[in-house]
Design a protein that fits this description.
four-stranded antiparallel beta sheet; globular; Aspartate Aminotransferase, domain 2; binds pyridoxal-5'-phosphate; seven-stranded mixed beta sheet
């Protein structure tokens, strides 16, 4: 396999070696069902309890507030649909225009079922107007769902402040923390957040495992009926190896987050400086101050993001673009559109997202290879005035 320079960690991350080691015995030898009466299965149950504790430690909450799911999308769906089913007399959800599709399409489906959904916009830097959000809350509002950090730009929202607003009105607050967990400090005990979604594969655990934090006492209807697993809140035999992996990944994040983020932020800033200083007509998207340390979303005017990606790919560099071309529509990203990024720049946006495995050499390689790619594409672009 070609060696890659992987800078697409907001899409998914490499599973950490320590995580693989921790989960392997549960694929090979320790295959008992944690619900079984015998010791062989019961031992597995104890390891799940330890994983739950490790996740709770990272989030600053109690283990019994942790619900294991299959992914971030399931956590988001459960949070939203579970809450609404518990408040049948309230028919409104307040969210933002820049949420991940796991929240946005869930909300659009709710509209088809008679709910009212209010999507708050953002400014040119991707920041929310908190006062505007406050005005949208009323007695018909069952819940507010606002992401902690944006997957495309890395912009971090003041969710603790928004949770306070919701709490003051007796409204449930959910945050999609899929991009935030492991990257910024989180202490749920000291917050008014009721529900938080996490995804394993964004923090060096495998795909197919997620978490929903449910604050004690939060009313939430059951979404997956079945056995008594997860205290009867989500039926289905546990995905044991992945849950164990999730616990280990959280432990690593807790141990390394502060140091790693300092290093990653410095690499990200070097990358941005290097690109901006050698490529004209490009700019960084997102909130300059409140941004994930690993994320850089850069718009290159007059050229297509996909073309840049394809040429980077020839050097083994993995990044992603803001356009939704996979849908066949060539529509620029809904996040950049909500920010009012001009059409010619929104189409040429590239997201680099770094991780604990990103090196200085890789950053230097991209800084060297990218400018000639941009120049070459601009020479071919019908939008560039000569
Ligand atoms: N929410 C955000 C902000 C994301 O970035 C993603 C994945 O990219 C998801 C939810 C969905 O997570 P999963 O892939 O685990 O379903």
């Amino acid at each position: 396999m070609q060696s890659v320079i992987y800078m697409d960690n907001n899409a998914t991350t490499q599973v950490a070696e320590e995580v693989i080691e921790e989960m392997m015995p549960y694929l090979r030898d320790k295959y008992g069902n944690p619900s079984s009466m015998h010791t062989f299965g019961g031992q597995v149950g104890k390891q799940i309890a330890q994983a739950r504790q490790r996740v709770a430690a990272l989030l600053g909450c109690e283990p019994d507030e942790i619900l294991f799911t299959s992914c971030g999308t399931e956590s988001d769906n459960t949070a939203i649909k579970g809450t609404l089913s518990s408040y049948p007399n309230r028919r409104k959800v307040v969210t933002t225009r820049v949420e991940h599709p796991a929240v946005l399409t869930t909300c659009r489906d709710l509209e088809r079922h008679g709910y009212s959904v209010s999507e708050v916009g953002v400014d040119g830097q991707g920041r929310l107007d908190i006062d505007e959000l406050g005005f949208r809350l009323d007695d018909n509002t069952a819940m507010v769902s606002v992401m902690w950090a944006n997957n495309e730009t890395g912009t971090v929202f003041p969710v603790e402040q928004i949770a306070e607003l919701a709490k003051a009105r007796g409204i449930v607050f959910h945050t999609d923390g899929v991009q935030a967990v492991g990257k910024i400090p989180i202490n749920l005990k000291d917050s008014s957040i009721d529900l938080l979604s996490v995804s394993g594969h964004k923090l060096h655990a495998p795909k197919g495992v997620g978490v929903l934090y449910v604050r004690r006492g939060t009313r939430m209807g059951i979404f997956m009926h079945g056995g008594h697993q997860e205290s009867g809140r989500r039926g289905g035999t546990e995905n044991v190896p992945s849950i164990i992996a999730m616990g280990k990944a959280c432990e690593l994040a807790m141990r390394d987050r502060a140091d790693e983020n300092k290093r990653i932020r410095a690499l990200r800033d070097t990358l941005e400086k290097g690109i901006l200083s050698s490529c004209p007509d490009c700019f960084v998207n997102g909130d300059a101050e409140n941004r994930l340390p690993n994320t850089s979303n850069i718009s290159f005017e007059f050229i297509e993001g996909e073309s840049i990606l394809m040429l980077l790919d020839q050097f083994g560099v993995c990044a992603s673009s803001g356009s939704a071309c996979t849908s066949g529509s060539l529509e620029p990203s809904h996040v950049l559109r909500a920010m009012g990024v001009p059409f010619t720049a929104a189409h040429g946006s590239i997201r680099f997202s770094l991780s604990r495995y990103t090196t200085q050499e890789e950053i230097e390689f991209v800084i060297e290879k990218l400018p000639p790619i941009v120049n070459r594409l601009r020479e071919l672009s019908p939008f560039v005035k000569t």
